[in-house]
Amino acid sequence: MLKYIVQDLYNLKRNRITAYAKTSRDIVVTSALAICVCDFNMMAEASNHLRPNTNKFCLKCNIDRSDCINKGEQRNSTVSRGILERLQLSGSKELRQRHGLKSYANCLWDIINPHEDIPVSMLHWMFLGIGKHLLKVSFESLPENGIKIAECLIESLDQTSFKEKINKDLIRYIDSRQGKDIKHYVSTQK
Question: Which 3 state secondary structure label does DSSP give 131?
Fold first, then answer.
């Protein structure tokens, strides 16, 4: 489906439309895609990213999972294209994991730089990606009495308006939690 939209954008750019206003002056209509707005899943699709299940879970920078609090070097579209070409030839799982990319035909690379032209949405990015890693680091840095206090705070949260409840197990089993759990926890914090 996206292929046809991209083709239309190319056609409109190449074959400009000339219109005439009431003043008989030429008006030239052309196109360019300046920005692509999408949620986290579509952002990953648009940039051929493996999502948070990889060592390089950030779509924007090259930070490793082990150093998730810091900002890494900005991803470079030329380098990413080279990696995608190597993946297409080799299909190496290790290469996919190391760079956080997966190879498939993606016509968006022809008209945008997915690493720069897709803005980050706090709702879909922080909660489902980095939010989990930040919580894990925060929980791991707590002393034992701090963990007990955090568990008490979680148990005392007013969750009457929430469909799903969270409990103190969130701290102990943070690695097995899904994005919806992290989103729910973060939304209860004011």
Answer: helix
Residue with tokens 């994991």: 97
Indicate the SS3 state at residue 76. coil
User: Can you tell me the mean pLDDT for 116-135?
Assistant: 65
Q: Is residue 70 part of a domain?
A: yes
pLDDT (0 to 100) of residue 128? 54
The DSSP line for 4-67 is HHHHHHHHHHHS-EEEE-TT--EEEE----------HHHHHHHTTB-GGGSSS--SSB---GGG
- Please say if the pLDDT value at position 4 is more than 70: yes
Number of domains in the chain: 3
Give the mean pLDDT of 133-161.
85
d(CA 102, CA 88): 9
- Distance between CA atoms of residues 183 and 123, nearest Å: 8
The residue with greater pLDDT, 116 or 30, is 116
Q: Are residues 54 and 98 part of one domain?
A: yes
Chosen domain end from 65, 88, 110:
110
Of 65-74, 111-120, 122-131, the range with the lowest mean pLDDT is 122-131
Closest listed residue to residue 40, CA positions, set 150, 125, 156, 158: 125
Q: Which domain holds residue 144?
A: 122-188
Gyration radius of the chain over CA positions: 22
* The domain boundary residue, chosen from 110, 130, 156: 110
